[in-house]
Design brief:
The protein has 153 residues and is an alpha+beta fold. Helix content is 24%, strand content 28%. Helix 2 packs across helix 3.
Length: 153
């Protein structure tokens, strides 16, 4: 599989979008539990794989993956609190090659983040400003911050 080849001086960004439930996120044929994710992030920290790591997680119950996380240098945003759904957006009847997909084209949190990034100078925007803007746009779930907030301003 792919391996992150970073150093203790690197800033790492992870954006994960999929399905979730309390304490888990899903992959097409497997799932990851909160403890496994937090142990992996701690191992990465101890191995010097980042200076700062920002993790954005789009999934239902995504806040549950970061509950109790206290890893220096790791800051996370969840699309939803520990026990709520994350919602789709741009829903309806999009047509592709004449076929009605009857689906949503994005997730509200991720689309809010991408549209905020398109509309602002992300090299000047702090993580705290980004959080506030994305939280205001994401009106169907409670976007939450987790972990080390010492570098968000």
């Amino acid at each position: 599989g792919k391996v992150l080849k970073s150093t203790a001086e690197d800033h790492v960004f992870i954006n994960f979008v999929d399905h979730g439930a309390p304490g888990i996120v899903a992959f097409p044929t497997d799932e990851m539990h909160r403890d496994t994710l937090q142990r992996a992030l701690m191992s990465m920290r101890q191995a010097g794989m980042f200076k700062k790591l920002v993790f954005d997680l789009e999934a239902c119950d995504s806040g549950s993956m970061f509950e109790g996380m206290h890893i220096p240098g790791v800051y996370a945003l969840s699309a939803a609190s520990v026990d709520e759904l994350s919602w789709g957006t741009y829903c309806g009847h999009p047509m592709v090659n004449g076929k009605d997909l009857a689906t949503c084209l994005g997730d509200l949190f991720s689309v809010s983040w991408m549209e905020n990034s398109d509309g602002h100078n992300t090299t000047a925007e702090t993580l705290e400003e980004q959080f506030e803007r994305v939280r205001a746009r994401t009106n169907k779930s409670h976007v939450s911050q987790w972990g080390d907030r010492s570098f968000v301003n």
